[in-house]
Specification:
Length: 174
């Protein structure tokens, strides 16, 4: 594969990751699934580049949340008061239990031992959702470097594992 195509692909990977941080339908897992097929010899580098773009985008959300924490807290309190009753009716018992677990995990983000574990779970398995954890971590003023490091590790592990599974599936087909 020509070097210019690989370089262009890497720029595209970073941009895809960055855009997926802002536009959820551009799901990063889609890129992780497609990278081994499109770039069979360089999928690891492409997944790493896409993850870098995604995490940079998430850090911008984190910083925006950190700066707007006071406004967010007022809006959140008002919205939660209005929506609490509606949520209970719409979710059912399983959805309500998942919601409680998610809220409990977010409440510990600023704790030195539990917070990084929640961020790792969020970025590594997607629960609680990374978008929610990103904003909550910013509001709780979690250390930016810690957020960046833990989120990068979790996302990178998830996307590399996803892409690796695709390569295993492709090798079984041959």
């Amino acid at each position: 594969m020509p070097d210019w195509l690989i370089a262009t692909g890497l720029i595209g990977a970073v941009l895809f990751g960055l855009l997926s941080a802002y536009f959820p339908p551009l799901n990063a897992e889609i890129y992780a699934l497609a990278a081994p097929v499109i770039f069979p010899d360089a999928w690891v580098v492409h997944v790493c580049a896409m993850t870098g773009g995604l995490v940079v985008g998430k850090v911008t959300h984190f910083i925006a949340a950190e700066k707007g924490a006071e406004v967010y807290a007022r809006r959140r309190a008002a919205k939660e008061a209005r929506d609490a009753q509606e949520r209970r009716r719409a979710r059912g018992p399983v959805g309500e239990r998942l919601s409680r677990w998610s809220r409990a995990m977010i409440d510990v983000l600023d704790r030195p031992r539990l917070g990084p574990l929640v961020m790792l779970a969020s970025s590594g398995i997607g629960f609680p959702p990374l978008a929610v954890v990103t904003v909550a971590a910013g509001v709780k003023q979690v250390n930016t470097l810690l957020f960046f490091a833990v989120t990068t590790i979790g996302c990178l592990a998830r996307f590399l594992a996803t892409a690796w599974l695709v390569t295993r599936g492709m090798s079984l087909g041959h």
